[in-house]
Design goal:
Elements: H1 3-24, H2 27-45, H3 47-60, E1 64-68, H4 71-85, E2 89-92, H5 96-100, H6 103-108, E3 113-116, H7 119-127, H8 145-156, H9 164-179, E4 184-187, E5 191-193, E6 198-203, H10 207-212, E7 216-222, E8 226-227, H11 230-245, E9 252-256, E10 261-262, E11 270-271, E12 278-284, H12 303-307, H13 309-314, E13 319-320, E14 323-324, H14 325-335, H15 338-343, H16 354-357, H17 365-378, H18 384-396
Parallel strand pairs: 1-12, 2-3, 2-4, 4-7, 5-8, 7-12
Antiparallel strand pairs: 5-6, 6-9, 10-11, 13-14
Helix pairs in contact: 1-11, 2-11, 8-9, 14-17
């Protein structure tokens, strides 16, 4: 990342810190933290049972359901689904899971235009190169107003002024124009209620509502997103919002439990009144079932990277794919392999533990990384300088 981008990112992170500090320590938030810790621990330990339960709930709700063992499996399912709808444009909401499977690149290689509807994601999409996000909920937090103005003007061939509202309106109008005739929307989910078969999605922009109104709504989420009940799911997304944005609640909280329907004419059930005629959920494993349980407690708030001294120094070079910071390094071993874990910054981490101290779930990322270094060394992935020291000690009883 450029020095100017790192400086802008740190300023953005300081804003999040100031906004959230006043409510993170409140008694209600502390009670919510305790509740969500219990929910996530139970959910991960009983994940297989919850998957079985939610599959029955989805069936009851007329939601089509698939389990994808790998990214390729998820992409194949998506390919088959959109083939039925003969679409060349897809409306997409913000989702780390969709980034994980490289959905945009996959579909664009097939000639399908994937339009990001989230403003931050769309700005990065228009940037075209060097456009990885820097925060789960504020992906473009490293770009200042001048950078964004140049990106929008160059990509959309406009002459917008460097004013936030002007930029927002230009991008919004362009997005709405591009997706007005598409019949497929795709998103992630913040939490999934197993008992009810309901998916909870939080957003401020209203874009997920637009995506979910397309004829086909595809939802891709990791298996770790499942919790027992809708009340549990709401608790998880409330806590995520507090630590991600410094607000108690987002502007919108969508709960999707099936396709659009009405029974207002002689109580006969009719689908596709205003929203989707078909809702499909793809639960993604992609190494999660082999992951260290604590890795899966993450609720995606990004508070770890906001406080991480390494991340604040080097930015999104520390992390894997679009999973940022130490947690991304930890997940890379299971999503990909030991080499990916090493290349993601396994030895960048100082093991200071600030990520754990500032994580609402107190995920011991530094301890996980320390253990991963032991495994990585055993399979030959470690800094060459460390190897020379090791060899010197072995030969000379001295590191020199």
């Amino acid at each position: 990342m450029k020095a100017s981008e790192l400086e802008t990112m740190r300023k953005s992170f300081d804003t999040v810190k100031k906004r959230s500090n006043s409510i993170k320590e409140s008694p209600s938030t502390q009670r919510l933290i305790d509740r969500v810790c219990e929910i996530k621990k139970f959910s991960i330990e009983n994940n297989e049972e919850l998957i079985n339960q939610v599959s029955e709930s989805f069936k009851r709700n007329d939601v089509d359901f698939f389990i994808a063992e790998t990214s390729d499996d998820a992409l194949k399912i998506i390919d088959e689904l959109i083939l039925e709808y003969d679409c060349n444009t897809i409306a997409k909401a913000k989702s780390n899971t969709l980034r994980e499977i490289n959905l945009k690149k996959h579909l664009e290689n097939k000639g399908i235009d994937v339009v990001d509807t989230d403003l931050g994601d769309r700005i990065l999409q228009l940037k075209k190169t060097d456009n990885r996000p820097v925060h789960p909920t504020g992906p473009a937090s490293h770009l200042n107003i001048s950078d964004i103005t140049d990106i929008v003007n160059e990509s959309l061939d406009v002459s917008v002024n460097p004013e936030p509202r002007d930029i927002m309106e230009v991008v919004r109008n362009d997005v709405l124009n591009r997706i007005k005739n598409t019949n497929v929307g795709i998103s992630g989910a913040n939490a999934i209620a197993s008992e009810e078969g309901s998916l909870v999605m939080v957003h401020n922009e209203g874009n997920i509502s637009i995506v979910s109104l397309k004829d086909l709504h595809i939802i891709v989420a990791g298996i770790e997103k499942i919790v027992p009940t809708l009340e549990d799911a709401i608790s998880v997304v409330k806590l995520e919002t507090i630590f991600a944005t410094g607000s108690y609640v987002t502007s919108y909280m969508n709960v999707i439990s099936g396709p659009s329907k009405t029974a207002d004419i002689e109580k006969k059930l009719l689908k596709n009144m205003y929203g989707a005629e078909k809702v499909v959920v793809i639960l993604l494993d992609n190494g999660r079932s082999q992951a260290t349980h604590e890795c899966l407690y993450c609720i995606g708030c990004g508070n770890c990277v906001v406080h991480c001294p390494v991340y604040n120094a080097v930015g999104n070079e520390f992390g894997f794919n679009n999973y940022l910071g130490g947690r991304g390094v930890a997940m890379s071993k299971f999503i990909e392999d030991d080499e990916a874990c090493y290349n993601s910054g396994l030895y960048m981490c100082t093991l200071c533990g600030l990520c754990t101290l500032n994580c609402p779930l107190a995920i011991p990322t530094n301890e996980i990384i320390e253990n991963m270094r032991k495994f990585s060394t055993g399979v030959g992935f470690y800094p060459k300088a460390h190897g020379r020291i090791k060899d010197n000690i072995s030969k000379n009883d001295s590191p020199y």
